[in-house]
Amino acid sequence: MRIPAHSVCTAIRDDIVAGVHERGSRLTEEVLARRYGVSRVPVREALRTLEAEGFVVTRRHAGACVAEPTEQEAADLLEMRLLLEPLGAARAAQRRTDAHLKVLRGLVRLGQERARRGTSEDLRSLGGWFHETLAQAAGSHALTATLTQLRHKIAWMYAVDASPHPEESWAEHGAIVDAVARGDGERARAVTALHTERASHAHRLRLAPGGPRAERVRNSQHAVNTPSLRY
């Protein structure tokens, strides 16, 4: 049975984000096909997709390699998210379904409960699911896809400090859902903008092999069926 290229693409992308394939390293079709247990055809298709997304570059005499983004490119991602996350929340306030609201409210309850208990292990995953659902509620495939790609690339380029006050962050999540439930697009946009800006302060550039020490950047400017990472 032919493995879909999108499954191979997800597996390679997850490994790039996790650092299995280091920045600047070569991505050989034969080696990747063997690693993921597929033929070279879906690997070739996946590499083309990942190049379009910015995770892979093609170099003369080297072929496909993991991209090496600059600090400015990384900072631009946070700025883009600051613009697009509030837009997504405003759209969600107008287009969300009852099913979206049910999931969002359930995630907020779980997040607030675990934040109160001080069990922070799952909070990052819950936050990722929350923002993924909020993006889907915007009712725009293009916007949802762009936000998903942004989250993947930010997770690749940045480490995130655990929040010293997770209950405050989850109170903000709750305020976003309240605005979305009321259909108040402007309120949803404003609360999400504040939440996204505060969250950006916890991001630190990851250390590149042999590179300079990473500094915090503020927003003032395996197998194919491996589950996808959540951010």
Q: Describe it for me?
A:
This protein is mostly helical. Helix content is 63%, strand content 6%. It has 9 helices and 4 strands, in the order αααββααααβααβ. It has a two-stranded antiparallel ribbon with strand order 1-2. Strands 3-4 form a two-stranded antiparallel ribbon. A hairpin with a 3-residue loop joins strand 1 (56-59) and strand 2 (63-66). The protein is elongated, with a radius of gyration of 19 Å.
How would the blueprint of this fold be written?
Elements: H1 5-18, H2 29-36, H3 40-53, E1 56-59, E2 63-66, H4 71-95, H5 98-117, H6 123-137, H7 141-157, E3 158-160, H8 166-182, H9 185-200, E4 203-205
Antiparallel strand pairs: 1-2, 3-4
Helix pairs in contact: 1-3, 1-7, 2-3, 4-6, 4-7, 4-8, 4-9, 5-6, 5-8, 8-9
What labels would you give this structure?
63% helix; mainly alpha; 4 strands; single chain; two-stranded antiparallel sheet; 231 residues
CA distance, first residue to last residue = 31 Å
List low-pLDDT spans: 210-231
The proportion of residues in beta strands is 5-15%
How many individual β-strands?
Answer: 4
The outline comes out as elongated
Strands in their spatial order, largest beta sheet? 1-2
Mean pLDDT: 88
**Helix fraction bin:** 55-70%
Q: Mind summarizing the main beta sheet?
A: 2 strands, antiparallel
**H/E series, N to C?**
HHHEEHHHHEHHE
Q: What's the Cα radius of gyration? A: 19 Å
Structural class label = mainly alpha
What is the helix tally?
9
Summarize the structure.
The protein has 231 residues and is mostly helical. Helix content is 63%, strand content 6%.
